Amino acid sequence: MADGQKLLFEGEGDQGPDITAGDVSFSLKTLPHPFLERRGNNLYMKEVISLLEALTGFERKFVHLNGKETTIRRDSKVTQPGTRIVMLNY
Hints:
7% of the residues lie in helices and 31% in strands. By secondary structure, it is mainly beta. It has two domains: 1-31, no CATH class; 32-90, no CATH class.
């Protein structure tokens, strides 16, 4: 969900005898993450690799927001500066 997006739950507030339940409203605030950056609907992560890794390949593991361990792998291809690796199945 987008930063600043509002959620409204109509009639879900406290109620009591002779009192109509009010609405509950939330406004979302995105907190910074140590290594993931949100741009629109996408998440980006910057990873620094050594020259040897750039020339021969590398593998990195990290824990995604859903708690699942995810692996980024680049096998035996030269990695140019600024290369982006797209992950569709996380």
